[in-house]
Amino acid sequence: MSAPIPEPKIFACKQSQALAEDIAKSFGIPLGNVITSTYSDGEFQPSFEESVRGARVFIIGSTFPNSDHLMEMLLMLDAAKRASARHITAVLPYFGWARQDRKDKPRVPIAAKLVAKMLETAGATRIITMDLHADQIQGFFEKPVDHLFGSTIFLPYLKNLNLDNLTIASPDMGGSKRAYAYSKAMASDVVICYKQRAKANVISHMELIGDVSGKNVVLVDDMVDTAGTLTKAADLMMERGALSVRAICTHPILSGNAYEKLENSKLEELIVTDSIPASQSHPKLKVLSCADLFADVMRRVNENHSISSKFLM
Question: Would the pTM count as exceeding 0.85?
């Protein structure tokens, strides 16, 4: 007779406290107790206020800037390792620094690879994340990576909208694979935006590949930062005769004047998850919870069950 599977422990980094509480509730266990001490200069020290010896530990925290969020995850991983946890899973609903996944010009870092190595060195024995900016980031890790798809959250919502003449759109060439996956699930057409950047977060030119006249368009992307690409694409599509334009973006970074752009754009709705806590509410912003998805995968990992169904678009 096999030994019973011990109950895991779930802990939260401060930036993902609300999401972690929802995940723990869906999982069916209370969130673990962590106390963070802060020095006057801003240095901080997290402390587990309960034993984790021999336990499977899940540490939940999105690593969006500022860098304190990543540092907190690293410190908690290190604390769990030094407290003799048996398995330590870093649950990163949003994997920050992922846009730096290659050398796009000389003398720049590959930050995504550096972050991967830091997480492993700190003590992570497994990574669970969602909608990486680039699939190949999984290869930066030597530990198992469970890369979940936000489409399992978005597709039911999208189907319930019952949009006629639906067309899926990618805001850039790099997102075409994601757009085709959504279009296959929705049995719809696909259009793609071609853009050129003057510099990071600044678009110099955008052109549309495909016809959107008389269509209800849904843009899909992994993240929305300044919202410049999405709002420009939405305005362009409405000019080309689209009936409506919505956007699905897994990670709502929404920095700078993103909310102002959203307000002034022709986007009807921006649908996101709570992988990053929205800094403010907005009538055009629809937030879908990813808590049940992560809780289900964490439960399957703890019980050594297959999670392959969660990898399907």
Answer: yes
